[in-house]
Amino acid sequence: MGILDIFLLEALLNGILLGGVLALLSLGLNLIFGVIDVVWICYAELIMLGMYGMYFLYTVYGAPIVLAGLVCLVGVGILGVILHLLVIAPLLGAAPINQLLATGGVLFFLQSAATIMFGIEFRNLGLRLPILKLSGMFISYSRLLAFATALVGMVLVYLFLTRTYTGAAIRAIAQDRQIMVLMGVDSRRIYVITSALGGALAGLAACLLVLQYDVHPFVGLSFGPIIFLICVLGGLGNFVGGFVAAFVFAEIIALGGLYLDLEWGYVFAFAFFIVMMFIRPQGLMAKRS
Amino acid sequence: MLELKSVRAGYGGFQALFDVSLEVRRGEAVGVIGPNGAGKTTLMRVISGLIRPSAGSIMLEGIDLVATPAHRIVERGIAHVPENRRLFPRMSVEDNLKMGGFVPAARSKFPERLRVVYELFPRLRERRHQLAGTMSGGEQQMCAIGRALMSDPELLLLDEPSAGLAPVIVQHLFELVKQIRAGGLTVLIVEQNVQQVLRVVDRAYVLKAGSLRASGSARELLGSDTIREAYLGV
Amino acid sequence: MTRAWPWLIGAALVVLPFVYRSPYPLHIMVIILIWSFAYTSWSVMGRFGLVSLGHGGFMGVGAYVTALLWNHGGVSPWLGIPLALLASGLLAVLVAYPCFRFRITGHYFALVTLALSGIVLQVITATRDFTGGSLGYTPERYQGGSSLFALQFSDKTTWYLIALAVWAGGLYVWHLVDRSMMRYALEAISEDEDAAAAAGVHVTAEKLKITVVSAMMTALAGALYGQYQMFISPDTVSGISISLQMVFAVVVGGVYVSLGPTVGAVITILLAEVLRISFGTRAVGWDNLVYGILLVLFIIFLPQGILGSLLDLGRRRAPALPRAAGSG
Predict the structure, then answer these.
(1) Pairwise CB contact (< 8 Å): A94 & C299
(2) Parallel, antiparallel, or unpaired: how do β-strands A137-140 and A131-134 relate?
(3) Is the four-CA dihedral C89, C95, C97, C99 of positive or negative sign?
(4) Domain boundaries in chain A?
(5) What are the chain B neighbours of A168 within 8 Å (beta carbons)?
(6) Are the C-beta atoms of residues A66 and A125 closer than 8 Å to each other?
(7) Which residues, in sequence order, are CB contacts of C122 under 8 Å at separation 6+?
(8) CA gyration radius for chain B?
(9) Edge-to-edge strand order for the sheet containing B186-191?
């Protein structure tokens, strides 16, 4: 056992911790896709706005962090609903690529709006959370907290989906959209609720990410592509697939970043994705096409 | 109870129903029979709101169904068991039943309705946690009917319940339909399997190429040539 | 009489820089021509429903490979550019082949290409020792500044003519594709892949061909842009913003018409310039803001684009972008 092993172990552990947040994000995207059958390309930008929200609430206005987090969660949830009502709903009958492009327009819009309103400087929450030392490994407390919160979030979503009527409707509509009418379900209402949920998950992720990373208008470009790759590899709409893929990708990023710059981690992840597409084109755990 | 007057309906440019008028009285069991492509499923869909009629009126005890938003028709007391069952394949039997009882009025009655359905279909209780998509055709049909019953409807629409099922199971199924009727439920069945359905219903209509060709009591139709004409054109 | 128009306009365009010598408008024209060529390159595959959100990546590869080979290896762009095209072609095959072979289409494909452009950006940033990362990269000036060997010219007129030629070449390629068997094959594929395959169309091969052509053309645009501006940075030539900008311009201009992308380029670039002149540095971000809103509005209300819709009014064709049957 040498120093190298400790670093490796540390990277592996960090990978798992990162995977938690990525899994949360892929859950949000998969929910939207599974229920409404659209992909929000601007999902990462919603997270970016959430991160700015946290920054302003906590650092600038001095709100207690938990309160800021809750406001953020609800706020981005509302943004999700607005996005759905203004952009997605008018395009529900259009070709899927049009829906995708429209959210691309929103991506542009949000990045630019952030640039104009907040400038391009990197902002930091300024929160110095302790670094824990676990048998020779350094694990940042914020990472642990993010992981734990993400897990709790996912469990809550799971309970919501399996124990409530609305949750059942969300699961059902992803499996057979047309007959929901016969159950007395108003599909449009379910879409709005799902959009709110997807937005809220993005808001939650924003709270967790802002603990560890700086925010700037283009921060979405850092993890947006990864989330999409995770969802595609796990199978769009496949919650379990996305969950697994999130951790796989997180490990690759963490290990890639071990010996090289962080960006190489992403490159390896993409290379892995390409390879996986050759080997298992239906995705890691294909259920839906 | 249910009254259709001169209903026209179709899909896009294709018209499937031409001036269909029929009625179903409370407590009755009425059948709609006819060959493939006659428009039977379209008829069901236009009643339950899956598609909207282009002309004509559909009244349920004085309530204008055409004016009612599609997803609120269930609240009025109509439950539709769609063609091919259309269960939610990756949800359990019990979750499917839960969806059947989604409307607020049914939620408060959930435990009781569940009991009724499980009494009627004991096989479903055995398999309550099984994924609906993994069951056999007959079991799925039972689940689909059970799901419709969860909303405690007054009118049950059954769309080709015998489709794809072995004769023995079909027979058992129609026995169950008789049982359901005995509970006071009004039933409208659309079927290709003439023999079986005419044994269960009081009256029937004959639908061919979107128009009603004949109607009468079950006994009359069983004896007459009308049906043979409709199906075989002789 | 109508047949003469393109030739007359073409002649006018060629003569323009000799008649109207002011450098700033010429500069704008060069920029418009290069980007029109880039957008046209995108639309060569975009018109068949192969919507790629990764063309920013190809542009980046074109620009950076050419510049890097020149700065680090003294390789003339005359060789560097073909190598860059080759690199982008290979990249296109690497990413597109598994997608097409395994029927990853539509929005799945768009997402994969989106990730591609993001990754190219990451690679450029990660290799900052070579590429300068997000700070950008400058091809070294060769001797006096004007050289055929280095493909660098200080004279705007020369660049204008080069850009004009390349732009015209792009339109020519577009028309070649439009008139080829490949077009019918690809249209059949975009309608119904299975039916096309059953009819004997080599679906994967056809899609790959058009993707490689499109990628290489886009790389050429990137390389020329680098040579002209003498400065490239990850977000001006690659990345998601560029990719979306391409889509936006083509959607606005019209994707099924050869001049549609050009119209889109004219609109977007003039808009950016107007904003820059009116607001100076405070205009940063406003152009993309407007693009974003316009893209959404266009997709919702005018999916055929301006040129496409105008032509449609004249010709009464069926709606271009297919509307999927049944709503959610």
Answers:
(1) yes
(2) antiparallel
(3) negative
(4) 2-219
(5) 91, 95, 98-99, 102
(6) no
(7) A263, A266, A267
(8) 17
(9) B78-81, B155-159, B186-191, B29-33, B203-208, B211-217
Scan residues 147-186 of B and list those with Cβ closer than 8 Å to A. Answer: 148, 151
Minimal-distance CA residue of chain A relative to B99: A183
Q: Residues, chain C, total? A: 328
For residue C303, being part of any structural domain is answered with no
Residue C174 located in a structural domain: yes
Residue C76 lies in a domain: yes
Q: Which residues in chain A are contacts of B107 at CB distance < 8 A?
A: 165
Domain count, chain C: 1
The encoded tokens of residue A18 equal 């990162």
Cβ of residue B140 closer than 8 Å to a chain A Cβ: no
Residues 6 or more apart in contact with residue A216 via CB below 8 angstroms:
A120, A121, A122, A123
Chain B CB within 8 Å of residue A59 CB: no
CA distance C198 to A194: 39
ipTM above 0.90, yes or no: no
* Residues 169-198 in A contacting B (C-alpha not used; CB under 8 Å): 169, 171-172, 175-176, 178-187
> By residue range, what is the domain housing residue C125?
5-238
Query: Across chain C, which distance is largest between two alpha carbons, in Å?
Result: 64
- Positive or negative CA dihedral for B29, B35, B38, B40? positive
Cβ distance B70 to A165 less than 8 Å, yes or no, reads: no
Considering only CB atoms, C114 lies closest to which of A95, A228, A264, namely: A228
**B80 interaction partners in chain A (CB closer than 8 Å):** 182
Dist. CA B32–CA C273, nearest whole Å: 69
pLDDT per residue, tens digit, chain A (289 aa), is 456 677 788 888 888 888 999 999 999 999 998 898 888 989 999 999 999 999 999 888 888 888 999 999 999 999 999 999 999 999 888 877 788 889 989 998 999 999 888 888 888 887 777 888 877 778 888 888 889 999 999 999 999 999 999 999 999 998 898 899 999 999 999 999 999 999 999 999 999 988 888 898 988 888 888 888 888 888 877 888 889 999 988 888 888 777 777 677 778 888 888 777 777 666 555 444 3
Nearest chain A residue (CA) to C327: A93
The answer to whether position C139 is within a domain reads yes
Output the pTM of the full model.
0.84
Contact B189, B29 (CB under 8 A): yes
Q: Please, which residues 4-63 of chain C have a Cβ atom closer than 8 Å to chain A?
A: 49, 51, 53
Chain-chain contact of B95 with A171 (C-beta, under 8 angstroms): yes
Q: Are A205 and A146 spatial neighbours (Cβ–Cβ below 8 Å)?
A: no
Tokens 């690809």, located at residue? C186
Residue A109 in contact with residue C293, Cβ under 8 Å?
yes
